Amino acid sequence: MQHITPQWxxxxxxxxxxxxxxxxYIVRKSTLKAVETVAGVDTGYRKGVARAAVVKLKYPSxxxxxxxxxxxxxxxxxxxxxLSFREGPVxxxxxxxxxxxxxxxxxxxxGIAHPRRFGLACHIGLLVDIPSIGCAKTKLLGKYDxxxxxxxxxxxxxxQGEIIGAVLRTRSNVKPVFVSIGHKVNLKDSIKYVLNxxxxxxxxxxxRHADRLSTILQLKDRKNCPDR
Length: 228
Fold this sequence. Notes:
The chain is an alpha+beta fold. It is built from five helices and eight strands. Strands 3-2-1-4-5-8-7-6 form an eight-stranded mixed beta sheet, sandwiched between helices. A hairpin with a 2-residue loop joins β6 and β7. It is globular, with a radius of gyration of 16 Å. The relative contact order is 0.19.
């Protein structure tokens, strides 16, 4: 794979152009072999500070085995569709602190279900060259039919005639999530891994663990976090 240098000091218009360019590097087929570890990635905000958390879990048991946290001042404005430029730097810092790379990343955000087919899961997955999936709580764009009420039911998320993701019911009679390809994972496998990571809740355990660390962990608690 061609090495791609992160670019964060950029204008919003430059960020849009960069997304369009980098989207051509996204691999939409699965390169996964045996998945033994999966990591959840989430970012929270507090008083102008972004806090990214990465939690690595064994797969398929989903036992947490390592986690890291990184914090930084926010430098990029909130603009829908450009989330990766706001969160990317601190997410990369947290990923660098892991003891070893996970086999798969699941982001609380979108992959190709994005206006330029280059959401957070695509951007970070491409930069670190790790298979990645987007699993978002809300839709960014696209149309879909409501999936069936049973766990495992899903429908296509479509934009301009292209299937860009799946609307997946991860818990019976509960609102679905929006799953899309990030990098090096096809949509069928993305659905499978997200569903396998859900244990009785709407959101996958990867997201649930990362969310707790990104939003609740205070500075005084960092001594308990092995963020090496």
